[in-house]
Amino acid sequence: MQTGNLPKGVPAPSETLGYQIIRWAQKYVVTPDGDRAGEPWQFTQEQLRFVLWFYAINPDGTWKYAAGTLRRAKGWGKTPLLAALAVTEFLGPARFSHFDAFGLPVGKRVPLPVVQIGATALDQTEQTMEFIRGLLSESPAEKEFGLEITKSTVQFKSGKPGSIKPKATAGRTAEGNRPTFVLMDEVHHWVGSNGGPDFYQTLKRNIEKTTKAGSRWVTTTNAYNPNEDSVAQQIHESDMVTQGFWLYDCLEGSIELESIRDEEKVAAALREAYGDAHWADIEGLTKTILYDRTTPDSTYCRFFFNQIAESSDGWMSKAEWDACEADPADDPIKPGEQIAVGFDGSVRGDGTALVGIRLRDAKLFTLGQWLRPEHARDDWEVDVLSVEATVKRAFETYCVEWMYADPPWWQENIGRWAVEWGDDYVFEFWTNKPTRMVQAVERFRTAVLVGDISHCGETELTRHVLNAVVKEVPQGDLIVKDSPRSKRKIDLAVAGVLALEARADAIADGRLQIKRRRVVGF
Predict the structure, then answer these.
(1) At what angle do helices 78-91 and 126-136 cross, to 10 degrees?
(2) Which of 174, 221, 305, 378 is the most exposed place for a label (fewest CB within 10 A)?
(3) Longest dimension (CA), the chain
(4) Cα angle value 238/246/275 (rounded, 5°)
């Protein structure tokens, strides 16, 4: 299903520079990999249509669209297409010059081309820069234009001004640049927590300095999560899109969430979403969606069907969590047993939680919780002495083999616990470091789905697990509250994730069944 504001059909040759740009790209750049590696670059029909409309012009030669966004399914070919446009903006006839005797527009090169590949972190630009290098290496363009191609820059060997470079500096330090073209990739990941919206505004302001000379920006995105207020969402909801000033090209797969287990409907929706991207493995993706239950359905909707979707079913469904519930009276956790512990601490805004997990069978249980009351005074704080006493009681009652504790606000306390109970038993675990936390969250969710973890149906722990929603970051999935100021807390869920991670590391260290700690009273 075609959505967005991309017009039907294609513009006439007199209404776009796109035809000249397509011919130029197919002459000067090469296919970087695959069976056709080294052969002239070829666009698909859908890519051609985007190029023709993106370079559409008004009768006076100005751009019809001041900017553009390409929202397509994961793996459709967004990055390769925009990499080709970045090369064209750097070397090709990407600005209007005049109309020829037949009334056809003629393009010219940008006099001082400054092409920037924008991202909130440099490593996010690597894929695009790698593709640009592939398009140019051993291509006619490399020889004819005398290019110096490095890992991070494409420029002229002669020293002539102009370059293609990644740009990943947010805030005021990025002000003052005068790019002629900016490619912003995967802007569904550009959110407040990584400075994405501010960086987007900075890049946009820089482009606007030279819009009269034809400078523009373009973004790529998958369908966004409307809970995150990403740059992708801000662009889609902008009046500039609804009024037709910015081009917005989108192709969605038509399927309802309740049909996501219907093989025929899933395959049909995938074919619709991927269009003429003949390389897409529709059969493989269909099997993944039907049988891989480690990924939320909302994620499939966004990335593969290209549908805007909230994580409304949360990180964990009630049915999934309930399936792991064990009878509290069946094999209860007893004093002296080996456990691992997770600690998620706060002082005022959020709660503080201490969760244990038995080493031999991964049964979760709550050791302590200090949650802000609904009508608490503004000066309410967590009872630190109570937390200290509970941690002490946990170490004295059980054989704690490994403890992971999130340091913010509690670093001094954690250091003291490590001194008191042993620095080979108490460890910091920074939940705000996404790479490590993504792995821990994935371990917990997988354990639930395959039944490798259990719980006793504790009301508050269950509530926190079901309150958690998924937040996609470049490294994978994190869990967060449904909004920053939400009263739906998730502290016990985070502590549970840390507890399971602590258990995994304790077992990997060989501590299961080898009680290295003397438990007080046992």
Answers:
(1) 60
(2) 378
(3) 98
(4) 100
pLDDT at 245 over 80: yes
The answer to whether the beta carbons of residues 189 and 120 sit under 8 Å apart is: yes
71 neighbors 306 (Cβ within 8 angstroms): yes
User: For 70-179, where are the alpha helices, taking DSSP H only?
Assistant: 78-91, 126-136, 140-145
Taking the C-alpha atoms of residue 394 and residue 354, their distance in angstroms, rounded to an integer, is 9
Q: What is the DSSP string of 369-385?
A: EE---TT--TT----HH
What secondary structure does DSSP assign to 408-428, as a single string?
TTTHHHHHHHHHHH-TTTEEE
Pull the structure tokens for residue 450.
Answer: 């395959």
pLDDT bin (cut points 50, 70, 90) of residue 289 is very high
- Beta bridge partners, 181, equal 115, 216
Is the pTM higher than 0.70? The answer reads no
Over pLDDT 70: what percentage of the chain?
94
Q: Are 342 and 499 in contact (CB under 8 A)?
A: yes
- The structure tokens 């200290």 sit at 388
Query: What's the CA dihedral at 250, 294, 408, 507 to 10 degrees?
Result: -150
134 within 8 A of 79, measured Cβ to Cβ: no
Q: What are phi and psi of 95, to 5 degrees?
A: -130, 145
Model confidence at 517: pLDDT above 80:
no
- Say whether 11 sits in a helix, a strand or coil: coil
Q: State what percent of residues in the chain have pLDDT above 90.
A: 72
* Burial (Cβ within 10 Å: 0-12, 13-18, ≥19) of residue 75: middle
What is residue 43's predicted lDDT score, i.e. its pLDDT? 95
